[in-house]
Amino acid sequence: MIHRVAGQSPAFAGAVAAAGLVFTSGLVSPAVLTGSPRTLAEQAADVFEVLGHTLAEHGCLLGDVVALTAFLAPDAKPTAWNTAFATAFPVDPPARTTVTCGFVVAGVSVEISAIAARTETA
C-alpha cells in the first residue's frame, strides 16, 4: 500500500510511504517560506523539526532515517551544516550526501530530503 502526506506546497506530497520505506520531498524552513530571514543553523534546526513531524505521520522517528540528501546554498558554511546534522543525529547517523546549489525560493540556505525505514517499534 502507498500512503502520502501533504507537503509544504500543494504541488507535491510531503512524504510517500511504500514497501516499508518513507521518502520525503525536499523540506525547507517554514519561516523562510513566509519571508523571515534565518541563518543556516536556524534553517537547519527548523527543517529537522519539520522532518521529525513528517516522519511521525508515518510512524517513524529521526533515528529511522537511513539516507539523507542535503542541498546547501553556495555561500552556506559547511561547518554550520555539519554541526546541525550532528545535533539531529548524535548517534548512528544516516548515510548522507551534501551538494551546493541555487534555490527557487529566495533566502533558502538548506533543503533536505530523506529516506526512513519503518521499524517494528516505530
UniProtKB/TrEMBL annotation:
This is RidA family protein. CDD domains: YjgF_YER057c_UK114_family. One of its GO terms (molecular function) is deaminase activity. InterPro entries: RutC-like_sf, YjgF/YER057c/UK114. One of its GO terms (cellular component) is cytosol. PANTHER family: 2-IMINOBUTANOATE/2-IMINOPROPANOATE DEAMINASE RIDA (PTHR11803), PROTEIN HMF1-RELATED (PTHR11803:SF58). Belongs to the RutC family. SUPFAM superfamilies: YjgF-like. Pfam families: Ribonuc_L-PSP (PF01042). It comes from the Bacteria. It comes from Amycolatopsis alkalitolerans.
